[in-house]
Design goal:
Blueprint: H1 2-9, H2 18-24, H3 29-47
């Protein structure tokens, strides 16, 4: 649900695909959370530029 909201509202490219998250971060749910948090931070940084 959170991933869908980020995909719909954040700029393209700030959130890696689910497959990329598995390869870049790992298999645990906390790794998906880390990717989601980074996408939110990147979006906020882009808005503040």
């Amino acid at each position: 649900m959170v991933r869908t909201a980020i995909e719909q509202t954040c700029p393209a490219g700030v959130l890696p695909s689910e497959e990329a998250v598995l390869l870049l971060y790992g298999l645990e749910p906390v790794h998906e959370g880390e990717a989601l948090a980074k996408a939110i931070i990147e979006t906020v940084e882009r808005l503040n530029r």
